[in-house]
Amino acid sequence: MSLASILEELRNFETALLADTISYIDPTPAHEFYLGGSVRSVTPSLGPTVGVAVPCEIDSSSPGGTPDVEEYWRQVEEISHMKEPAVWVVKCVGSRPDHECVLGDGMAKTLFAAGCIGVVTDGGVRDVNGLLSIPFAAYSKGVTIHHCALRFRNINRPVEVGGVTIHPGDVMHGDCEGVIRVPSGCLEILASKAVQMRGFESEAHCVLRRSDVAPGEKRRRVASLLEKYRFAK
């Protein structure tokens, strides 16, 4: 199956469900694939975002200086030649972190036209209504109304966003509850295993919500369900 087909399959699942599934089927420690809660969706109505990471660094907050956008346009050109949808992953490196604003709806339209479906950043964004109209998903620390001169650097190199190191080509999955980096080792089987995880959770939650079953019995039944769905370790 092509990577594009795998990404399309993964759009059928909530990010939290995939994170649970990864924890059972892949040896990657959890702290290496789920981003911190400071990076959250400001476009939650758009649903799951799944794409290939295209990283860079930006200084949009330091006073003075002149714009340097050559690397940005180079990335836009590279994205336009990708076969899979891209997710722009932006590490903010300016001197005033609370003032970082990596894009508005103008840049988002340019990126979207090239094949980028969203941004994941530890900075801010703006023009949320415009982003929704494109539609362009944004996962950020929130909304920042403006920016200083935009200066791009270190494109297509690993960056740390939300406490997780993200490499070029990593598969990113996000929705209204947060963002994960999908480990490459489980990518091809993740969708089928997520179907099993959905079945396990459905049955397990029916047990967990019952008031007529003792805690010890709940624990036993859930363990049995893990074996049924082949998630027992």
SSE diagram, text form:
Blueprint: H1 3-10, H2 15-25, E1 40-41, E2 49-59, H3 70-80, E3 86-92, E4 101-103, H4 105-114, E5 116-121, E6 124-125, H5 128-133, E7 137-140, E8 151-153, E9 159-161, E10 164-166, E11 171-175, E12 178-182, H6 190-208, H7 215-228
Parallel strand pairs: 2-3, 3-5, 4-6, 5-7
Antiparallel strand pairs: 1-7, 2-8, 2-11, 9-10, 11-12
Helix pairs in contact: 2-6, 3-4, 6-7
3D architecture notes:
This protein has 233 residues and is α/β, with parallel strands linked by helices. The chain has two domains: 3-185, Ribonuclease E inhibitor RraA/RraA-like (Glucose Oxidase, domain 1, 3-Layer(bba) Sandwich), CATH 3.50.30; 190-228. The chain is built from seven helices and twelve strands. Strands 1, 2, 3, 5, 7, 8, 11 and 12 form an eight-stranded mixed β-sheet that branches. Strands 4-6 form a two-stranded parallel ribbon. The chain has a two-stranded antiparallel sheet with strand order 9-10. Strand 9 (159-161) and strand 10 (164-166) form a beta hairpin. Helix 2 packs across helix 6 (190-208). The chain is elongated. It starts with a helix and ends in a 5-residue tail after the last helix. The mean pLDDT is 98.
